[in-house]
Amino acid sequence: MDSSAYEAGKVVGAVIAVVAMIAVPIFFILSLILAIVKKSKGWTVVCVISTLLGLGILGLMGYGAYTAIAGDSSANLNENGEAISADNLLAIKVPKGWRDVTSVVDNEEASLSYGNVLRNEFLIILSEAQTDFEDGTTIRDYADLTAGLMKDALKNPQQSDYEAVSINGMQGLKCTMEGSTEGIKIVYLCHYLQCDSHYHQVLAWTVPSKREAAFKTFKKVCNSIRKVTDTE
Hints:
Blueprint (H helix, E strand, L loop, with lengths): L2 H36 L2 H30 L11 E3 L5 E4 L5 E2 L1 H4 L6 E5 L4 E9 L9 H15 L1 E5 L3 E5 L2 E12 L2 E11 L3 E9 L4 H13 L2 E2 L5
Antiparallel strand pairs: 1-2, 2-11, 3-4, 4-5, 5-10, 6-8, 7-8, 8-9, 9-10
Helix pairs in contact: 1-2
């Protein structure tokens, strides 16, 4: 599709929407006045129609606002419903309602950022080459290092014990973490995975009141993580 034609269509659509938003209320008021003054069934019908049109416009505006915030989970996914990290190392199965939230999370180091803003569900992946670490560094060392940096950034951090995990051939550790930042409490589900040449942090978080539902989604997404290629 030609991008200039697409943008022109968006502008025309926006102009039509604005005109409708202005015209329908004016038409409703005029028809209501005429229906009362002339006591005409015809104008009463027109008044009802204009009311329905107004409600329809409000509904479309609400739906537009919702999709703008929640996003379309089918965008930028492959045929298997997966999102691929920017470095082409990992893929995740994207649940319904999730979209790319790079602009919301604003973490330049993340190779993938997905979630649902309305449900306060967020997940990012950060990958680092093993060659950037000292020889003999283990996945436990990597987990301790990155978890320590997270705790330094949180107020009153609390971390659970690590649990060993194996996800689609990748070995690693997982834990939960709690703390607050800028006055807001946050709960995290953290995975630290090791591949042939990279370490990966998979960090998913929400607020405490949404923990139960969000963690169910996080666990499904994390269990879907796979390497894009066997050689990475």
